[in-house]
Design goal:
The structure is a single chain. By secondary structure, this protein is an alpha+beta fold. The protein has helices at about 1-10, 40-55, 145-150, 175-180, and strands at about 10-20, 25-30, 65-70, 90-100, 100-115, 115-120, 125-130, 135-140. Among the domains are: about 1-70, RimP-like superfamily, N-terminal (GMP Synthetase, Chain A, domain 3), CATH 3.30.300.70; about 85-145, Roll (SH3 type barrels). It is built from four helices and eight strands; from the N terminus they run αββαββββββαα. β2, α2 (about 40-55) and β3 (about 65-70) form a beta-alpha-beta unit. The longest helix has 18 residues, at about 40-55. The radius of gyration is 20 Å and the shape is globular.
Length: about 180
């Protein structure tokens, strides 16, 4: 249901996850096709257009919350091609089935091709696995990753940036409590 809408809007679905609780959360991560910078308006447009589809199709029988977001800097790597975009960066991977008694690995992405994703581990050995063999994978936040996100325009505004002071922010909870007319505080 989400993929055709994403394609229509020039977006790609990065991950869909349903998390339990009293009221489940349907989390959908999106990005512009090709990994171009994605912003809150893209998320809002996608959410507004997806909501009527979800209401009509009713894929989750109980009441749930919908959250649409971008993958962020330390993004999950979920699709074939994701690793190839981040060659040279540090990633952590969890395999579905253990390899020599081990499921969790961390290392530098060296390549992604028909043989799979190659990760250079700390001991200079190489793990090669296909995306479908992984239960989880994501980039690890490093200075190099932040620099790459800043250079390609995917890093959100930071304190000290020229445009940072013009961003709208929510009041801090302590400010709200101090100005509460019911308590006189």
């Amino acid at each position: 249901m989400a993929d055709p809408l994403a394609t229509e809007l020039g977006l790609e679905v990065v991950r869909i996850r349903v998390m339990g609780g009293n009221r489940p959360l349907l989390q959908i991560m999106i990005e512009k096709a090709g990994g171009a910078p994605t912003d809150v308006e893209d998320c809002a447009t996608f959410s507004r257009n997806l909501s009527p589809i979800l209401e009509a199709e009713d894929p989750i029988s109980e009441a749930y919350r919908l959250e649409v977001s971008t993958p962020g800097i330390d993004r999950p790597l979920t699709r074939v091609g994701d690793f190839g975009r981040w060659i040279g960066h540090l990633a952590k991977i969890e395999l579905i089935m253990p390899l020599e008694g081990r499921r969790r690995f961390q290392g530098i992405i060296r390549r992604e091709d028909d043989a799979g994703v190659a990760i250079e581990l700390d001991d200079e050995s190489e793990l090669v696995a296909h995306v479908h063999e992984m239960s989880k994978a994501s980039l690890i936040l490093t200075d190099e990753l932040i620099d790459a996100a800043a250079s390609d325009g995917t890093l959100p505004p930071q304190p000290g940036d020229e445009d940072f002071d013009s961003l709208e922010t929510d009041e801090a909870e302590s400010d709200t409590l101090e100005n509460n007319p019911e308590t006189g505080a």
